[in-house]
Amino acid sequence: MRIELQNFTKRFGDTTVIEDMSLSVASGEMVALLGPSGCGKSTTLFAISGIHRIDGGTLHFGDRDVTALPPQDRPVGVVFQNYALYPHMSVAENIGFPLKVQKLSSSEIKRRVSEMADLVQIGNLLSRKPQQLSGGQQQRVALARALVRKPDVLLLDEPLANLDAKLRLEMRSEIRRLQRETGITAILVTHDQIEAMSMCDRIALMKDGNIEQISTPSEMYERPASRYVAGFLGNPPISFLQAEANGQLALGGGNALALPNGITATGPVTLGVRPEHFGPQHRGSSVAGRVSFIEPQGREDLIDVILPDDQRLRAIVPAGHDITLGQEISWQVDLDRVHLFDAEGARL
Amino acid sequence: MTRQTLLGLGFLSPALLAVVMFFLLPVVLTVVFAFTNMSTSTGILGGAYQISESDLRRLPAAGVSDEAVTLLEGAGYAVQPETLALFAAEFGEDRASELEKLHGGATFDDRRAMERALKELRRNPLRKVRDRKTAAELFRVSILGQRFATEAEFQTAIADLGVPDPDRAALTTAAYTGWTFTTQNFELLWKLPATWRYALNTVLYVVLTLGFNVSFGLFLALSTFYLPTRTAQTFRAIWFLPRILPPVLYVLMWQWLTWDQGFISAMMRPFGIEPINWMRHTATHAWIFIVLINGCVGASLGMILFSSSLRAIPETQLFAAQVDGANRWQQARYVLLPQMRWPILFITSYQTLSLLTSFEYILLATDGGPGRQTEVWALAAYHTALSNYGGNLEYGLGAAYALGLVIIGILLSALYLRFFNFRELVAKPRIEQ
Lengths: 348, 433
Known about the structure:
Number of helices of chain B: 21
Order of helices and strands of chain A: EEEHEEEHHHEHEHEEHHEEEEEEEEEE
Number of strands of chain B: 2
Number of helices of chain A: 8
CATH architecture of the largest domain in chain A: 3-Layer(aba) Sandwich
CATH class of the largest domain in chain B: Mainly Alpha
Helix content of chain B: 55-70%
Structural class of chain B: mainly alpha
Largest interface: A-B, 31 and 22 residues
Shape of chain A: elongated
Radius of gyration of chain B: 34 Å
Distance between the termini of chain B: 48 Å
Strand content of chain B: under 5%
CATH architecture of the largest domain in chain B: Orthogonal Bundle
Oligomer: heterodimer
Largest sheet of chain A: 6 strands, mixed
Largest sheet of chain B: 2 strands, antiparallel
Number of domains of chain A: 2
CATH topology of the largest domain in chain B: MetI-like fold
C-alpha cells in the first residue's frame, strides 16, 4: 500500500513542529525516518497512524484519503518504543486484542493468534503475562499484535531502542524478515543510522521538522545532499575542513588539494573527507600533518591527523602499520570520493 | 534499656498517648458500657439507694416478698416519741405536747392526713401551709422516696422498718439507683423489631450509596480523563466541592433545593405539580436524596483516586488501543478498568467501612425520617445514647449498638483483606516501562 503524505503540518499549541513536509513511500517499501531527537520523526509517525491529528496537508493510503480518519479506522499497525503491551493480559490476549475489538469469533481469534505467534516465533509463550517476558520477547509480542489485524502499513517507533546490543542485532534482521515475508509497507522511526541503513530500502533524514534528503542508504552515504547529511551518516564520522577554492583547494598552512573533477566553484567551501578515503594506502593529492591520536580497533586503527592550521582529519588505516604518535606524515586524499559543500552547507 | 530506646519511646509517647486516649480508650469504654444499663437516670458515677412509690409494683418481680412490700407501703407518718422530739425542736414543746395529746401513737397513710392532724392544733396553730408541710415531713417514718447515700444506711433503715431478713438483699439491689453490669442490652437489641429494621436500613444505605459512589466516581474519572487537562481539572474541582463544604452548609443547600417552598417545588409549579417536601415526602424520596447527598460527597474521593490511577497508566497503551481499533468504550472496558482493580477495591472497602459508621448527613437531612424509615444503625446508636427525645439517654444501649457496628466493621475488614488478597495487589509490580 503506497503512502502519500503531502504538505503535512503539525502544531502543538503555538509551536509548529512540522511545516509543509511531504513524504511518499512505495508499496512494500520500508523507509526509515532518521534524525536526532526532537526533529519530528515520531510526530510524523503518530500523524500517519492517526494518533495525532494532522493540522495541515493530506495523507493517502493508496488512493484512499485517510487524512480525517481516526486511528481505529486506519489500516495501520504500530510498534511502540516501550511496546505498550497491556500488562493485565496474557500474550495471547495481547495479540488477539485487535481482533477481539472487531468482535471476531473466539475460534477465529485463536487461529489467527497462533498463526501470528508462530510467525514471530513465540508460540510457546502464549499463556505468559508481559512482565514474565524478556525485552526481545515483548518486542515480538508487540510485532505480532501490530500485524495480526493484517494492516496495510506497519509503523515502528524506535522499536530497538530498549533492547541490549545483541538482541538489537537479532531483532534488526527479524523485523526486516517479517516485513519482507508479509510484503507490508513499513516506516521505521529511529535515531540510529546503523538501524536505518541496515533495515530500510530508503532513508528520510530529518532535521528540524524537514526532510533533508530521502534516498537509498548507499546513495545517501555516497552522495549526501548537504553537510548535515554527510555529518549524520558514517561511523566514525566524516571530517570537515574549511578550504578556499581558487582553481585549487587551499587548506591553509601550506596544504592544497586539486579541485575534484567537475567542480568550478570559487570562494570559501567546506571539504568533507570520510576516514576511509584518507590514509597512506590511497592514491591522490597529499596532505601533510602530524599524528595526534591512535585508536586501535583490531582489524584497523583510527588515526587522527592534525594539520598545520589546526584542522583535523581522520584516517582508517589497516592494522599492521608502523605509524607512531607525533609522527610527521603526508598522506593521500581520495579526491574522487570527497564531498564539497558551499557556505550554506549544500552539496556542490 | 539503651538511650536510643528511651529516646524513641520519648518521641513516640505523644502519639501513643493520643492513640490510647482517643482510640483505644473509647473502644474499651464502648465495650464496657455495652454491658451496663447506664443511662441519664443511673448517672455515670455510682448511685444511691432509694425506693419510690412507683417502684413498689416492680418489687415482687425483683424477688421481694409481698409482706415486705406491704411494710414499705404501709409505713407512712407516725406520731411517736422520736418524731415528736424532732417536731418539738423545730416548732416548740408547746405544740408537741398538744399534738401528743390529740394524736399520740397515731399513724397516717399519707402526708395530707398528717397535715390535717397538724391543722387541729388550737393553742398555737400552724397557720402557714408551708409550715405544716415542713412539720408533716418531720413525722415521716416511711423510707419511700428517701435517699440513702450508702448501702449500710439503707440496710439499717429497712431493718428498722422490720423488713424480713430474706428480703433485704433483693430489696437493696432493687433500691440501687446507679448503673449495674448486665447483658439485657443485647437481649433487647435481639428482641426489638426496630433493631432489624435499622440493620436493613443500614444495608440498603451502604449498598446503594456505595454503588452510586463507585460507579459515579468511575464515570467522572473516565469522562474527565478524555477531556483537555484544564477543563478536566475545573470539572474535578467542582465535583470536589461537596467534600470540602461544611456538612451543615452542604445539607442546608439540599434542604433548600427540596423544601416545599424550595427550588424543585418552585420549578415544578408551572407544570402543575403540587409543591411537596421532595426529601421527606415518602421513604422512597428520602432514600433517593440520602443516596445522592452521601454519594456526591463519596464520589469525589473515588474520582480523585481513580483519576490519578488512570494517569498512571502509560499513555502509549491508549495509543496502542486506538490503533488496535478499540473505541473509547472498549478502551475503558478492556484496557483501563482491568488495571484499576486495586483502586476500585480500595474505594469499595474503604467506603463500606466509613459508610457503616457515618450518619451525619442523614442526621442533618432527614434525621431518620419520615418516621424511622431512614434510621440507620449508627444513627440509632446516636439517638439512643446521645439525643433521645424522651430525655433519658441510654448510654448502655447506645454502646451496645456501637459495639455491634465495631464487630461488623472488624469482620468486614478481615473479609476484604482475605477475599481481595490485598497484600498481593499492593506488592504486584507494574510491567517494566
